[in-house]
Here is the input.
Amino acid sequence: MKQIRKRLTYANVMSSIAVFLVLGGATALAANQLAKNSVGPNQLKKSAVTTAKIKNDAVTGPKIKEQSLGAVPNASNASNAAALGGFPAADYLKTSGVQAFGAISSSTISGFTSKNFTPVIAKSFSVPANGLLFIVGSVTVADDGSIIGGNELYFRFRLDSTNVSNDNYYHGITAGNGGEELAQTGAGSAVIPVTAGAHTVFIDAREEGTGSYFFGRDLSILFVPGGSGVPIPVPGQF
Here is the structure.
């Protein structure tokens, strides 16, 4: 029998080498796996891991050790959860807790001769809670020259139907005598308790002389929820 020898071609040689490299490389990779925790920030190139390269749910709660985040305080148990600067919320005043009201008039009143206290200016308002009113008011008058004799005007504050003072001579102005038209201004103030709801503050005036001529009058009212005031009516001296 004739023996047939087959020559090795270049393709045969290269195929054999490729098979050897593949088998040898796989063995090397299997024998040289990365050690646990051997890859960290120092081994990764900048921007090597991005959001786009991380699969959804790749890192979930169970895969993160509880100790890695440290102790996270419960907000409801935090020492300052119900306080601000160490003070409870009730110690702070809301914006609506302080309110200011005012009224002003420059319209004239001539021939004022009322012997009883009569309103010459008023301001209505509403307050959100029990508290105190700080009231400041003034009137400017002169002797009414059309009436013979001098004027002698007295005025006082009133909250709703209650006088701040029952004194008929609470505040007084004598602006002239016998037709002398010299304007004078009288002012007063008071701090009085008030309850929540709607109220009206008045300046009432009365004439003891022959007649007064009003130029202007004004009221300024400040509401605050705390402090101390004078219970009304204040007893009069006369």
Observations:
- The CA atoms of residues 114 and 206 lie 5 Å apart.
